[in-house]
Structures are given as C-alpha cells and as structure tokens.
Amino acid sequence: MKTSTSIVKKIYVALIFIFLYAPIATLIVLSFNASKTRAKWGGFTVNWYRSLIQDETILNALGTTLLIAFLSAFAASIIGTIACIAMSGMKRRNRAILMGITNIPMLNADIVTGISLMLLFISLGLKFGFGTILLSHITFNIPYVILSVLPRMKQLNPSVYEAALDLGASPVTAFFKVTLPDLMPGILSGFLMAFTMSLDDFIITHFTKGSGINTLSTKIYTEVRKGIKPEMYALSTIIFVTVLILLFLVNIAPEKKASPDSGK
Amino acid sequence: MNKMWAFFLITIAILSTCGCGTGENNDNVVIVYNWGEYIDPDMLEQFEEETGIRVIYDEFETNETMYPKVEAGAAEYDVICPSDYMISKMIQNDLLMELDFDHIPNAKSNIGTQYWQQSEGFDPGNKYSVPYCWGTVGILYNRTMVDEPVTSWAQLWDEKYRDEILMQDSVRDAFMVAEKLYGYSMNTLDAQELLTVKNALIEQKPLVQAYVIDQVRDKMIGNEAAIGVIYSGEAIYTQYENSNLEYVIPAEGTNVWIDSWVILKNAPHQENAEKFIDFMCRGDVALKNFEYITYSTPNDAAKSLIEDEEIKNSPIAFPDLSQYDNLETYTYLGEEGDTLYNELWKEIKSY
Amino acid sequence: MNSKKNILAAPYAVWSAVFIVIPLCMILYYGLTDKTGAFTLENIAAIASVGHARALWRSILLSVISTIICFLLAYPLAMILAEKKGRAGGFIILLFILPMWMNFLLRTLAWQTLLEKTGVINGILSFFGLPSLRIINTSYAIVLGMVYNFLPFMVLPLYNALSKIDENVINAAKDLGANKIQTFFHVILPLSVPGIISGITMVFVPALTTFVISTLLGGSKVLLIGNVIEQEFTQASNWHLGSGLSIVLMIFIIINMIVTALFEKAEN
C-alpha cells in the first residue's frame, strides 16, 4: 500500500517535470538542428554555436541584458536595504503606507506598470534607451529586495548593534561590521531574485526601450515574427546549462562536505 | 524635510544625466528604422566601412507599430522605410523632412521614372520619399495541398481549406482582401461596404489557421498551411526554399505598394541620413539588397545588373501590371478613418 | 536615532513616489481625459463596446480556468514536495525556478513547435497511429501556455505554506480519530490558505493581463484584453483609450486583491 502510493507520487512529480521541461528539451534539440526552420529536422550540427560567437546583435543583446540585470539588481539591493533599515524605525502608519506602495509593482499587472513608466518617461522628455530600461528594472526589482530583507531585519537583535556602539564603534562601523553581515543572506537572496526577474522580463522592457537597444527578450520578440535565428536556441541552451551546473555545484558540493561532519 | 527635497533634486539630476547619456548626439551615427529582414546586413557593414558612419539599426513589423514610436518622439530615428499610405500620413502630420536631392544624386539617376510617378499618389511632387522596394500582395499556395487553380480571393473563404489558411495580421492588408473580393475600393470609408467586409472577415475567421505577418514565410515553407496571403517579395524567397509553392495575383485585383526611404523632420543626423539613402540607391548596393531580400527593386541600375535571366523576367519580381485594371495603392484614411478601421478590426479579432 | 532612520527612508520614498505613484497617476490622467485634455469617462466606458467587452470576457474566462488548473495541479505536488523536508525538497523547488532562466518567450515559443500541425507532439501521435492534436491557435493552447508559465508561481507559495505546517498538528488530528480525508479538509487545507491566496493572486493577475502568450500560441486569432491595450499603445497610438482600459483592468486586479484579503480575514 505504502509503496504504491509513493510510486503514484513519483509518477505525478515526474509528469509535472516532463511538462515543465519538455519545451526546454525542445529548444536544446533545436539548437543542434541543421535545418533553419523549426519544422524540419535537418541533421545534427554545432554550427549555430560557432556562428553565435560571431553574431554581434545577439551578443550585444546578451551584454545589455546581463548589464541591466546586474546594475538594476545591485541598485535595488542598496535602495531596498536602506529602505528596510529605515522602515524598522518607522511609525506603524508610515511603514504601512510605504509597504503598500512597495506591493503595487508586485501585484499590479506588468503591462500597466510598463505603460505607466512609458508615460512618465515621455512626459519627462527622457530619451528612451539604456537609462529608461534600467530605471524601470530598478523600480520593479526593489520590492523583491525589500520582501527578502525585511524578515531578516525583524530577526535582528538590536542589542548587538548597541553593544558595538558601547564598545566605541561609530554608528557607521557598527552598521558595516554588525548589522550588514547579519542582513547579508537576505540581501543576497533579494539580489538573486531581482537579477532573475530582470533577466526574464519582457513586458516592461517592451514599453520602455528605445531605438537600437535590445535585451534578449525584446530581441526574441521581434525575431518571433520573422523566424527565430537558431543561434538564439544555442545561446539559451548555453545559459541554461551554465545555470544548471552552478546549481548542482552549489547544492551538491556543500552536502558532500557536510556529510563526514555529520558522521562524527 | 529639507533633506527630503535635497534627495528629490539629486534623483532628478541623476535622471537628467541618464537622459543625456543615451542620446548619442555627438557620435557619427545614423539611426535606421526598417522592416524586419528588409536589408542585406552586409550592406550595412559596407556602408559603415565606406563612410565611417556607424549604423544603429532597428526593425519594425508593420507600419502601424512603427508610427506611434516615431510620433511619440521618445525613440530617436533618422531614416525610416514606411509604405505609401503611411508616408502620406506622416507628411500630413508634419513628421518628415523635405529631401535635398542634390545630396542624394543616386536617387534621381537610378530609380525608374514610373516609380516616381507612382509615388506622386502619396507624396505629391516627390518631395519627401525615395522608393526602396515595391510589389504586390497575392496568394501563395502549396501545389501538393491545393489541387485546383487559384485565381480568386474567394478561395480564402473555401471550407475545404479550413485551418489551412494564413491571413495577414495587419488591418489594411486583411481588409484589402475582403474589399477586393466584393469589388470595393481598398480605401473605402463607406459604412455599408465596411459592414459587409467586416461580416465577411468574421465569417472567414473559423477557417483561418492564424493571422501572421512575417511568419507566413516559415509556415508555408514548413508545409504548415496550404494557402496564404503574402507579399510578392516573400513569395520568391519561399519558392527557393520549397519548390511546391506558387504565387498568384487574384483576378479581382490587389494592392500595389511602394516602401520608400524618408527622413524625419527632427532627425538628429540628417546629413548621415542622406548619405545612407544615397548609398542604398547605388546600383550595386540595390542589387545586393534585391538578391538578399528578393523584394522587387525600383532601381533600374540594379535591375540591369541582374544576370539571371529567369529572375530578370520573373513575373513575380517584375510583373507586367498593365494586364490588370483593378490594382490600387492604399491611401491614408485620415484619423477618423484609421479609428474606424481599428475598431472594426478589433471586433473581428475578438469574435 | 529615529530621525536619522527617517532620513534613510528618503531615497526609497522619493523613488517610489517618482516611479510608482506618479506613473499610476498619469494613467489615471490619460484614462480620464480625451485628446484635447478635457475630462471624459468615454475611455472607460469603451470597455462596453463589442470588441473590448468580448476580449475582457475571454481574458477573465481563460485566466480563471488557468488559475483553477494551476491550483489542482500544484496542490498535490506541493504536498508531495512538502513531505520531503530539508535539502531534497529545496533542491526540487530550485528545479521549478530553473526554467525561468531560459527566456520566457523562447519557452512559450517552444510550445508552438511542440503543438504545431506538423509539430513534435503530432509527429509522435501519428507514429503510433493516433489522431492528431489540433489545439494550436485556439484558446486551449493559450490556457496551456498560461498554466505552463505560471504553475511555478502557484507551487512555490503552496509549498511554503504546507511545509510550515507543524507535523504535530496533523498527528494530533489523527490521534483524535480523524481519517486522512478529514485531516486534509479540517487541518491541512485551512492551514494552507495563505499560500493558496498568494498563489491565486500570482497566477490570476499575469494570466488576466497577458498579451504575449495569446500572441505566440493563439495565432493572433484570440484577442485578450492585454492585446487590446498593448495595441492601443503600440499600433493605434491612442494612449487615452489604452489608459482607460488599463484602469478597468486595475479595477479587476483590485477586486481580486480585496476578495483574497477578505478570505484571509475570514480564515483568521
């Protein structure tokens, strides 16, 4: 009885994972397809990986995407962390207002956020380009940082900080030596979350990008209509495999280190 | 509270520097906004090598998606390649610069006179635009899936081809098909006629596999659909890839269009833009572009350089239009006309 | 000390004012004015026109269906995952986030390749002599795309809520004579309500407002309200109408938020 339910469970999880990973497997297969159209299988090739290295537009888009993801996640981490510190000392009502506003970009539809930022940038007379995309990404990234730092903030023991002050540390030193290290895991996971969100965003970038600049998402969207370049499949395969390997390293490596310890 | 204001001002200051930083006003560049897959990328490189001007290249999908970006002025562009009716709209809305043909000598010498005449329809006096490509809209069908001769738009309403039909996903092209089917003008604003057209398109919708733009090419090549509406230039390319495909201009007539280079009035690099257009009008360059994108070129110098007799006499690339008496070119419908067509199109698409 | 902390709030307060509050006010402004700048409710009333109303209705229908399917698929999954405490569970959860690193448009586009008439799935079906699957360019394909894209958003909050349930509570229920089904409906389900609520919100809102999935998998045959709004901005250049319809959309989002908040309160 027990085993049969556990088999059912395993099958169920496996089916869901097939559902989630079937498209990804398809993309990986397509990246080795010699035929240029998706519809036909023309034999195995690694040519798309070779031509990817020379494809400037795709590499440019990749560079822009990574740069924006990094800068926006970084800026959001700083602004978000400062906001969390400030909020911890705020009156209840003010904090509620600020948290309410923070929730808006998370709960609102991306399309509305994108349009509203587009209207703002136009009325400010900004030229659409790298700057406008970056500002938008910082805006929708801050909430992710706040939501992952705030719980850490609540766990923080204020007496440690005060103890540091008593021992003669300046508030700044005390902050960097005591508070910040405690917050770091929260900041880091907020940063990663923000980075991922920025990387995967299409809709908001779609409305706030200017001429001659593309992130991978917007590049793909314009290519969708006229046929995706197979180099794009090659690139996403590389990204995917890289992340997969990193994930395994992060998750498996410490486990191996930990196991002899636990054996003691 | 004062400190609050200081932060506010700093933020604004940062904002404004961001704005200037992305303007690239001082660079020696030209910003081109063209249709997707509508130029030989090597020609852009050659232009950069010969002139030292860097090309920032951006693509649009339909005239309708291009216009708001340009009108809003938020994205900077110098040279654009819209179609006939859109050029007329842009002229009326004062978005275009009058061209100085002394700086574009290749235009007058290489582009055939008939195309200048045709352009008069949307650009009286040929002041604003230089023809780049032209063509017709017709039906592309797969001989292995369609075993009767295709002669009429009506065949796109044939129950036999349910789920095998590809329509164009742009309001004017979709309406044109139905308008021509009923013998109306493709620029009609007559309420009764438009009602008939709307109902016809709604009636057709269940038979349509998808409304597509550039994707029609891949789908026809991949045998995904049997019959579709396509631009003549795409037809030649698809035939290279899949020899079962055949292109026809239906007997009821169709749209003859011209896409032309224009320069925006507020273009930041007007001189470079002129150089760019002049370069594209050169015979050898136009030939390379023709060979790459397979759209008919109005460039006589390029045409005379074509070596392949079959292409030179191809009825698709260079059709003899005199055999049709029902060809038309889109005209700008005015703001109200545009809104009317848009509303009807939304009704059809949401049905 | 406190005043210093308040100054620290300034950067974010200014940022959120400029980039969150003011932009929303601009949508309100555009939505409630016409081209001359005069006040009008026309842009909001436009939702009642045939095309818009149908698009909105279809969006609601498809997003509700997708949310329900996501929930039904995700709940058992989250329960199974929650049983696996510790590293293994966490690792499986990471596997849910991993696909997000493959671009969302490409992933959705891959479904096109899978579902097409001459696509992968039909190739497999015809190999076994089975009838072909014809759902590409229909509402079904769009629902599939929504479920595919938003399922992780449902799984993660459910997993969080379920893994927090104290095992002692479940054991206590069993000791008191409750069978599995009773334990589920009287203990597990009520305790997972916060997860359910945030899962529903995180699936329903993006599904209601998407325009990408319908474009990629619907063959432009199925017009959703997101498509209408997107086209008003990028094709018709009618910002006033686009903003008006966005306001309508926001009203729906707010209703969704209020309903879920009420549920939350009732449960507490």
Question: What does this protein structure show overall?
Answer:
Chain A is an all-alpha fold and 264 residues long. Helices cover 82% and strands 0% of the residues of chain A. Chain A has eleven helices and no strands. In chain A, α4 (92-107) packs across α6 and α6 packs across α8. The radius of gyration of chain A is 23 Å and the shape is globular. Chain B has 351 residues and is an alpha/beta fold. Chain B is built from 15 helices and nine strands. The longest helix of chain B is centred in the first third of the chain and has 20 residues, at 2-21. Chain C has 268 residues and is mainly α. Chain C is built from 13 helices and no strands. The interface between A and C is large, with 73 and 80 residues.
How much of the sequence lies in strands of chain C comes to under 5%
Q: Could you tell me the mean pLDDT of chain B?
A: 89
Terminal CA distance of chain C reads 36 Å
Biggest sheet layout of chain B: 9 strands, mixed
CATH superfamily of the largest domain in chain B, called what? Answer: Periplasmic binding protein-like II
Order of helices and strands of chain B, N to C?
A: HEHEHEHHHEEHHEHEHEEHHHHH
Ends distance of chain B: 55 Å
CATH level 1 name of the largest domain in chain B: Alpha Beta
CATH topology of the largest domain in chain B: D-Maltodextrin-Binding Protein, domain 2
Q: Which blocks of ≥5 consecutive residues of chain C have pLDDT under 50?
A: none
Secondary structure layout plus pairing:
The complex is a heterotrimer of chains A (264), B (351) and C (268).
Chain A: H1 2-30, H2 47-54, H3 56-88, H4 92-107, H5 110-124, H6 130-155, H7 158-166, H8 171-200, H9 203-208, H10 216-226, H11 230-263
Chain B: H1 2-21, E1 29-35, H2 41-51, E2 54-60, H3 63-72, E3 79-80, H4 84-92, H5 105-110, H6 113-119, E4 130-142, E5 165-168, H7 171-181, H8 191-204, E6 208-212, H9 215-221, E7 227-231, H10 232-241, E8 245-248, E9 256-263, H11 270-280, H12 283-293, H13 300-305, H14 309-312, H15 334-350
Parallel strand pairs in B: 1-2, 1-3, 5-6, 5-7
Antiparallel strand pairs in B: 3-9, 4-7, 4-8, 4-9
Helix pairs in contact in B: 7-8, 8-15, 9-10
Chain C: H1 2-31, H2 42-45, H3 50-83, H4 87-97, H5 104-115, H6 120-127, H7 139-164, H8 167-175, H9 180-191, H10 193-209, H11 212-217, H12 225-234, H13 239-267
